[in-house]
Amino acid sequence: MECDFSSAITEYYDTHHVRIRAERREEVSPWSSIFEIIPYFIAQIGPPGIELQSTNGAIKIKVSPPEANQVRKMWISHLDFKYNLVIWENSSNAEFRSQSIFPTDIIDDLAPDTTYCLKVQATLPLDLKEGLFSPIRCVKTTRKVNDLFCATNVSVLALNMKFHLHWNNRYKQHVSYNVQYLTGYLKKLYDDYSVKWLNVPGCENITDTQCSFSSIITTVSGFYYLRVQAMSEYNTSCLSNEVKVDPLRTNEIGPPDVKVDISDVLLHIQISPPGGSESEVMRDHYDLSYRVLYWKNSSNNEEEIKMKEIKQTIGTVSDLTPSALYCVKVQAFSEFYNKSSRYSKEKCIRTPGDEIFPLVILATFVIALITVLLVATLLVFALYQVYAKMKYVFFPSCQPPLNIEGFGGQLFSSPYMSTIEEPIANFSIIETVITEEVNQIDFKDYKHSKQSSRDSGNYSNDDDTSGSKVSEEMLEKEIV
To answer: How far apart are CA 191 and CA 412, in angstroms?
Structure first.
């Protein structure tokens, strides 16, 4: 027995308590034990709806989500659903084929004029839920139009985040091509995306069978679909099969560039990441590591090839043999994406011989000795300058005049040092007034005496100096 009590469920994430009892006329049984349920966790996903259309040798399918026709929905976000398709030929020895599909998708690689049956299941991977399959539907395929001018064998070649689309042309007449792309998330929607394809810039009305579409890869977290539209000289068109591009998984890692250098006992290896300095995506998203192979290149073929793995772009190798030729090559790889590049070109370098090391030591010693001598010379010169300044300040070399030196037994000290004032005897110069005429010689003697008086006047007071000047003026007047 069963009972539909959906109308009693008000919240799908709340806990509900349920109990049952039986009734017959006026008789009723006791209530059963109470059990708890949370509707969301015990509910099962219902079957999706499907629509089929046979077109050009393929089957176009459109899926509608479970509860599409219900007013109240438990599964609110339809974009969380993923759909699994099971398809098989309607025959006695049919082989079942399973694949994931989008809400609107095309199933190709089918035999023409053949009846296929299929069913679809909705799942919620995040909740680990699988729903019921839809009812089985069958449809017969048509024969595919085989136009010679259609692009075939469409493929993607990508190296170091440079993407190129290649295809084959079987038509001998004039054909032009448009490369079209569709952003991947549009296929997750339930709308018809057939009118949302866009032309790749630079890949419109071309006659080549290849084109770069790196310009449309604006993010590496999503994916893209590409196809080629061929147009004949009669204005008819044909669409190729679609190819999916997941940038980080479709792209291949190129070999890195390597530079080697040698020091005393170390081999230095400098690695440039694949794609050069401009390819930030290669460095930021692949988390590259490097596998370094190195060996001593000699006539002995039994030399062992050694390997070391590093994360940095700079590595060193020690324990080198002097005067030996060492060769290096490097491979870049990403553990997360399980991708690796080809090895780089071999780079070889010779280690220095034993006779070079004593010369290096001698040169180092000479340089150190010259440096010490220069520093010592500068230090001595600085000390000498300090000594000369101190001697000039405290022990000057200048001497006082002869007529003052030793006067009163007083010694002069530095002109820059203050001295203690000592009592000085006052004296005056007595001059005799001459009324008679004197000759030139006496006047010169007077001048010499006056000069000495001025020097001696430095030791007199201001009053005496004034008196000397007055007497001097009177003498000059009488002489005149």
So the answer is: 114
Report how far residue 452's alpha carbon sits from residue 454's, in angstroms, rounded to the nearest whole number.
5
Which residues partner with 350 through β-bridges? 325
Q: At what angle do helices 440-456 and 462-479 cross, to 10 degrees?
A: 170
**C-alpha angle with apex 170: 167 to 171, nearest 5 degrees?**
120
Instruction: Summarize pLDDT for 24-81 with one digit per residue, the tens.
Output: 888 888 988 998 888 888 888 989 999 999 988 899 999 999 988 877 888 878 888 9
Q: Which two tokens stand for residue 418?
A: 């203050």
Residues 217, 268 contacting (CB under 8 angstroms) = no
30 neighbors 21 (Cβ within 8 angstroms): yes
Burial of 336 per CB tally in 10 Å (0-12, 13-18, 19+): exposed
Q: Can you spell out the DSSP letters for 202-244?
A: T-SSB-SSEEE-GGG---SSS-EEEEEEEEETTS-EEE---EE
Q: What is the mean pLDDT of residues 394-418?
A: 55
From 51-60, 66-75, 286-295, 354-363, the region with the lowest mean pLDDT: 354-363
Residue with tokens 């793995």: 309
Distances from the Cα of 397 to the Cα of 401, 402, 413, angstroms: 13, 15, 11
Rounded to whole angstroms, the maximal C-alpha distance in the chain is 180
The answer to whether residues 64 and 192 touch, using CB atoms and an 8 Å cutoff, is no
How far, in whole angstroms, is CA 41 from its chain's centroid? 45
CA distance 69 to 83: 18
**Token digits of residue 399:** 């001497």
- The rounded distance, in Å, linking the Cα atoms of 375 and 14 is 86
The identity of residue 118, as a single letter, is L
List all residues 6 or more positions away from 433 whose beta carbon is below 8 Å from its beta carbon: 474, 475, 478
Cα angle 184, 188, 189 (rounded to 5 degrees) comes to 120
Please give the pLDDT value at position 53: 92
Strand spans (E) along 110-236: 115-124, 129-133, 137-140, 152-159, 162-168, 175-183, 198-199, 210-212, 224-232
For strands 267-272 and 82-89, give the pairing: unpaired
Q: Which residue has the tokens 């070391």?
A: 308
Q: Please give the backbone phi and psi of residue 280, each rounded to the nearest 5 degrees, phi first.
A: -70, -30
Cβ-based neighbours of 260, under 8 Å, separated by 6 or more: 267, 268, 269, 270, 326, 328, 347, 348, 349
Between CA 151 and CA 227 the distance in angstroms is 9
Q: Does the pTM exceed 0.85?
A: no
Rounded to the nearest angstrom, the gap between the alpha carbon of residue 248 and the centroid of all alpha carbons in its chain is 17
d(CA 407, CA 424): 11
